[in-house]
Write a structure and sequence with these properties.
The structure is a homodimer. Chain A has ten helices and nine strands. By secondary structure, chain A is of the alpha+beta class. The longest helix of chain A is centred in the last third of the chain and has 28 residues, at about 260-285.
Chain lengths: ~325, ~325
């Protein structure tokens, strides 16, 4: 939950004057997202999400994210569409921060997704990968193999406070990933953070993707591995192979995975689990007690790291 | 900012099945309100605010609050209107908590209200008082004179941590209020918490009141005194008599204050300042450090207590 920066009616009025969106009717802070401040804005012409980008976001990268949403939307992928300013741009300044408005997307993110929803995510992810193929801009994944060890060095001293086995298991996994991480898989634009709260449904149909602020260019199959971690484990951290099967086969039907991608799924999945364990551990250690940020438990991803260690082929995830 | 209770799509779907509001399109937690969990719900028939009542709210009192909103709306006061369930009631259960849906009100609450807005509030408050005159239900003010000393006893031990003069000044004011609190002023339904974040504007016109969960039956002029405290001081805690004049004269033009009410304004205003100082102090002392509730500074109201001490007639607030 997050509204880090409140805005006054005068500031917002001046900002909206840069757009052709009619008169302001209301704005409410939204208790979602942990990186930026988000407001639902109603004007006489429609509903929009206004985002103020907070310190974790690099302003120089915003054109990539906003351009990507525009690109995907133009190719039929349902996602927020940046609203053009009168000056033709999509990025402005509000309360001293970079800020953008995007279209409001109806839909519900699922607190309890079922296997059918995982199939929708697999299909939608593959469609997004195909639609991103001709996106002209590029952005390095800032949370991939090379970034993990520096992140680990910053929080490893506190790892034992979380779990006695965490340090040794992380070291062992990091070494294996550094030795074996696949380098030549088909690449393209990936979402890189496609958790349930970033996927909307209307009824049982996927209605859109949101929150592209980790999107980057990387191995497409890594995005699949992120989704296996995010969608196919139960609350007790057990892998649900029915969900894995649904997600992988639906993906594969739209964008067939290559043999190399299939072979790499276990190591990519282990890497994805490590990536989320590391950022959670870092946040856990670094977030002051009085903060308004909800801390997410790194142990959930330690459990997933352990699961992936025992998988050696993609059939272990349910791929037919 | 507050969403204390998250809800699943299945829970919400079952809840909405009790209403004739069409299909669910989206729901987002709103980062406003500090007592309850609020969601903006879109359905195929409209937009609603869904409130889950948390522990501070007494369920037995909810029919008063919901009935009052219905009553005021029927008399032309713009406020959220409770949506009727198929069973004719307005109160349901969601995620184990009492829950209600009300209509969504467009409008903006003003972070920086000006004197013209204070006049709108004075006029609107008087209209609300008149509209409430024939409301059949009654509720005791749970934060009036008799409640202040018990509240004080719970936090006075920590008062010195906030300000060295706080304990002595509070004791002195409490004694004076206990001796002189007016008892025979014209009574009726009061909002009792009409701060800027509970009043919406469209442009410079008041567009509605929200958050009736402190409403009760008490002296109408006490509500005016609350508004003087809430609307007519600047950020440096200085009283702005232009705002006070605007608010009081606009109120007086719609519902003329009696001589007794005018004479009582200074003591009512001092009491209102004490009431908000006490609840802020209590929250300050009792809220654990890691809580997601934003603590409001009790010192702001100590400054207001001091201001009111020096006022002996309503002309000191700007009443013509």
């Amino acid at each position: 939950m997050a509204v880090y920066t409140d805005i006054t009616e005068a500031e917002l009025g001046a900002f909206l004057a840069g757009y052709d969106v009619g008169e302001l009717q209301s704005y409410r802070g939204i208790a979602e997202g942990v990186e930026n401040s988000n407001f639902l804005v109603h004007t006489t012409t429609g509903q929009f999400i206004l985002t103020l980008y907070e310190k974790r976001v690099n302003e120089a990268e915003l054109p990539y994210f906003l351009g990507l949403m525009r690109h995907l939307a133009d190719r039929g992928i349902s996602c927020p569409v940046p609203v053009e300013r009168r000056d033709g741009g999509t990025l402005g300044t509000l309360a001293g921060r970079p800020a953008a408005m995007v279209s409001f997307l109806e839909g519900i993110w699922l607190r309890r997704p079922q296997a059918g929803h995982c199939a929708e995510v697999g299909r939608g992810l593959a469609e997004m990968h195909l639609a991103g193929a001709d996106f002209a801009m590029s952005r390095r994944n800032g949370l991939t193999l090379e970034d993990w060890r520096p992140l680990w060095e910053k929080s490893r001293a506190h790892a034992a406070d979380v779990d006695t086995g965490l340090a040794a298991e992380t070291e062992a996994l990091l070494r294996r990933l550094e030795a074996e991480w696949p380098r030549d898989l088909p690449g393209g634009v990936i979402h890189a953070d496609l958790f349930p709260d970033n996927v909307f449904f209307l009824g049982d149909r996927l209605s859109g993707f949101i929150d592209f602020y980790f999107a980057c260019n990387d191995a497409l199959a890594y995005d699949v591995a992120v989704c296996l971690n995010a969608w196919c484990f139960e609350r007790d951290h057990a892998f649900n192979i029915t969900k894995g099967r649904a997600l992988l086969n639906a993906y594969n039907a739209v964008r067939p995975l290559s043999d190399a991608e299939i072979a790499a799924l276990p190591i990519l999945s282990a890497g994805a689990a490590l990536r989320f364990m590391l950022t959670r551990l870092y946040d856990w250690v670094m977030t002051p007690e009085g903060s308004l940020v909800i801390k997410k438990d790194p142990l959930e991803y330690l459990a997933k790291m352990r699961f992936h260690r025992a998988i050696d082929t993609a059939s272990g995830y349910g791929l037919d």
